[in-house]
# Entry
Amino acid sequence: MLEPTLPVLSRAAALSLIGGGVLAATQPAFAQAALPAVRMGAQAIDATGEAFYGADAGIWQANGINAEVTLLSNGATIVNAVIGGDLDVGEANTMTIASAIARNIPLQVLAPAVLYSKRDANANLVVAKNAPLKTPKDLSGATLGVGSIGDFNHISVLAWLDANGVSPKSVKFIELPFGAVGEALQTGRVQASFITEPFKSTAVAAGQISDFGDTYLAVAPEIAVVVWFATKAWIKNNPETAKKVVNGIYATGKWANTHTAESGPMLAKASKMDPAQIATMKRLYFATQPDRKYLAPILDVAAKYGGLQRPVTYDEFLGLS
# Structure
């Protein structure tokens, strides 16, 4: 579910992407001169779907906002567009924003977005089909694959190993594209690996992998893996609009959690996916209020395992509640 934590680009690099048409997909919704315009950045995926769900369902308008939603390819591009002032608010991986704040980039989280818990469980640590590995301790001395060393997925594997009595120092990690996991396990290049959808379903269908563990649940029973954020300057200069955005986020979350049939066509339109395929997907669950338990554990494990340049506190991380 969670994209790798990506480096924040320079403003010049971000602007070059914008100039190249990356931000060309702006979708104004309910343009009314009386409502403050808020430029929102998201990806065309369910995990950041609140942006376009709220626009298409009229929820942003109902909360006093003229939402202008721009769909981008990854969280790093969204972060840089917000930093550069080309977007007002965005949605991105929680660790991406924590890493930026740890480097003293003046960002602030507005609200948690997607939550992950046993309700959403989908094993993300896998081994080769019919592998002899039976318990976590069998991984001692093994080589494990992760998409990116130091991202949240990697950090969660370290926490999972510790929780299961396996020293993280006893294993070796290599960076491995999710699409290459099945083959790498079959050839013995790695003995276990982190994987995400849709790559997991493809490897399962090919008979290459078996489930081995759910590393996210080792961090906490329920965590926010995506957050809404803005710059501190935008929040300070637009306090009333920021409050309306937060209210709209939670209102959209409540709606999306109970209206998956209605949001499915919205996701199909944004992602260009087959509506029939979306109808078979396990849909995600969104936060409907702020809660320390959603975010503090991620910040804690990130600091514990060296995922951040410096520790980031919960109070520093979350700007509005």
User: Anything to note?
Assistant: The chain is about 40% helix and 20% strand. The domain at 123-213 is CATH 3.40.190.10 (D-Maltodextrin-Binding Protein; domain 2). The mean pLDDT is 88. The radius of gyration is 20 Å.
